[in-house]
Amino acid sequence: MDAYRDQNYLLNRQYQDATNFGARVDLHRRFRVNPYGFHRWVFDHFTLNEGSQVLELGCGPGGLWRSNHQRIPASWQITLTDFSPGMLQEARALLGEERFTYQVADAQALPFADGSFDAVIANHMLYHIPDLKRALSEIRRVLKPSGHFYATTFGREHLRELDELIWKQWPHRPGKGLGKSAPFMLENGQEQLAPFFTQVTLETYEDALEVTEAEPLAAYVFSGRLGSFLTQEMRESFTNLIRQELAARGTLHLTTALGMFEAQKA
Ligand SMILES: C[S@@+](CC[C@H](N)C(=O)[O-])C[C@H]1O[C@@H](n2cnc3c(N)ncnc32)[C@H](O)[C@@H]1O
């Protein structure tokens, strides 16, 4: 199984709690060019009625709802799920019990009856699922007729300047020049959703990062799988490379490629 879908690593290390994910959110929050914010942009696309039943898969620490707290209609009934109990605990601590119901659930086997939800949201998580067809058929099953599915992800060019920096430091790392490749991304999402949903559309979010500090960018890299292979000395050496680049260029520009697929059950 590829690095994106290694269940043991994801559940017991990467997403055991929100620490690693938090380092990545932090980089975007501090250095994004578009002040609007991705989660607010995602929320803008929801076309849901009063009293909607909403399910989020892989909710992580609940960032989507924290970013939109003031404008969530009081009548929505929102169920937040994640396969990591640690992540769900973090979401519960940050969002409280009043507006949300929480349940540990793997997206490949949803513990809900057929036709339960008006909307299902999968925010940056479908690329982690080993059997994506099974998950998509589960999502379809739990949606009401003409229910909406919203799935965000990244594209091939996302943070490509950072990948180039990593290759500069470790030139023998595989994949150089190929762009990012993940099981569910902007470039290959449509064809995977089409067998399960109708009216599949994709919208992209315009942004970029202008990074001015070495440590948050280094923390981003160390929070990923690469971080588990690095000694302290290697970490220091990579952080120094970022410092040198910043001294030479002033800021590090990072391209972002982010977007959302919207689809309907029928
Ligand atoms: C990149 S984080 C995204 C968190 C959140 N959706 C956000 O965008 O802020 C991916 C999340 O998906 C969860 N996840 C990964 N595989 C999953 C699966 N098979 N079923 C449910 N959740 C899963 C992880 O535990 C993690 O919280």
Secondary structure tally: strands: 9
Strand order of the main beta sheet, please?
Answer: 3-2-1-4-5-9-6
Q: Please describe the biggest sheet, giving its number of strands, its sense, and whether it closes into a barrel.
A: 7 strands, mixed
What fraction strand?
15-25%
Which cofactor or ligand species appear? S-adenosylmethionine
Describe the overall structure.
The chain is α/β, with parallel strands linked by helices and 266 residues long. It has one domain: Vaccinia Virus protein VP39 (Rossmann fold, 3-Layer(aba) Sandwich). The protein contains ten helices and nine strands. Helix 2 runs antiparallel to helix 9 and helix 9 packs across helix 10. The chain starts with 6 loop residues before the first helix and ends with a strand. The chain binds S-adenosylmethionine. The site of S-adenosylmethionine has 20 residues, from loops.
What are its keywords?
alpha/beta; globular; Rossmann fold; 266 residues; single chain; 22% strand; seven-stranded mixed beta sheet; two-stranded antiparallel sheet; 10 helices; binds S-adenosylmethionine
In short:
By secondary structure, the chain is α/β, with parallel strands linked by helices.
SSE order and pairing:
Elements lengths: L6 H8 L4 H13 L6 H7 L8 E5 L5 H5 L9 E6 L2 H11 L4 E5 L12 E7 L8 H11 E12 L5 H10 L19 H5 L4 E8 L2 E4 L2 H9 L9 H18 L2 E4 L2 E7 L2
Parallel strand pairs: 1-2, 1-4, 2-3, 4-5
Antiparallel strand pairs: 5-9, 6-9, 7-8
Helix pairs in contact: 2-9, 9-10
The protein binds S-adenosylmethionine (SAM).
The site of S-adenosylmethionine has 20 residues, from loops.
